[in-house]
Amino acid sequence: MIVHLKTTIGHDEAKALAQTHQAILTQNAQWHTGFILTLSSKVKELPVDLTQYAEDYVVLDSDIQFASRSYQDRKAAVRIAEDLVIGGEGNSTWLMTGPCSVENKAQIETIAALCKTQDVRIIRGGCYKPRTSPYSFQGLGLEGLQILREVADANDLKVITEVRDASHVQDVIEHADIIQIGAKAMYDHGILRACGQQSKSVLLKRGFNSTLQEFVQAAEFILSLGNPNVILCERGIRTFEKATRFTLDLCGVSWLKEHCNLPIVVDPSHAIGYRFGVADLSRASFAMGIDGLLIECHPNPSVAKSDAAQQITPEMFSELAASLRKMAPGIGRRLK
Ligand code: PEP
Ligand code: MN
Fold this sequence. Notes:
The strands form 3 sheets. This protein has an 8-stranded parallel β-barrel with strand order 7-8-9-10-11-12-13-14, surrounded by 7 helices. It has a 4-stranded antiparallel β-sheet with strand order 2-3-1-4, covered by helices on one side. The chain has 10 helices and 15 strands. The chain has helices at residues 11-20, 105-117, 142-154, 169-175, 189-196, 212-223, 250-259, 268-272, 278-286, 314-331, and strands at 2-5, 24-26, 36-38, 54-58, 77-81, 84-87, 92-98, 122-124, 158-163, 178-181, 201-205, 230-234, 264-266, 292-296, 334-335. It is of the alpha/beta class and 336 residues long. The protein is globular. Phosphoenolpyruvate (PEP) binds at residues 100, 126, 130, 162, 182-184, 205, 235, 267, 270.
């Protein structure tokens, strides 16, 4: 249950009420100008002693609360820049591209040049890589963040980059425009809390073993701390199928569109794990009216230090972007 407290109630009083009711205390004017208490969704009736403090309240079916369409039936607008809003009432789909890992400056400059020719505004690249083996390339760390930031600023691009664990979350927050929480970090409460306690935008990837309910509840950790700027990313889930790396859950995308009010991005690269399917899956996802596509692209994928099999070349990316642009009017979307 989400309870909007009367705007006359100050912080100390709201905090005491939160403690009494084991509720989370939230403040964000996008939702309500006063303080907000969130109780478990199991609470179906407003506790009597809260009636005098409550301006209004919403009863929710499950612990998907702030992200639920039953709480707010319009898609959240996540503002990255004045003219770069992901989600909201517009019909834009934003392309985000770049390598799996930042490897060196020349590589990022090549991708930045591609972004400029393709009118792409957001560049990606991982600097802290959550690898399956400790013997694989782990990322350039802070040096990588500095390269990304420098090249992005020189080309008027925005940066999305991932945080692997809570030890470097502040460095990522400082250098990124969109903080990516990777699939393996979806349950890392240190990261979720740090992202909730600041206001930069967060792209939360679905854990590959997570249900949709668990996925959106992870987003609730960020939202309930007062950061409304959360984007959900479907990136494939583990199924019995071994021929592809994961299985892109487009049914899940439909479910999220129907039940949740957060913008949705699809990452086809990690889902299929091979470059041959990235363009088709991008077009299929684009046709569903999603808010963004996160696509891995490397100047020379065969020598990439991570995810070599799935990264597409700049030429492939340009062809894909052209085909999406052709599709856009037919599905009532604008490709950005
Ligand atoms: C990535 O984007 O490079 C990545 C590691 O993705 P995921 O967390 O979805 O595996
Ligand atoms: Mn990758």
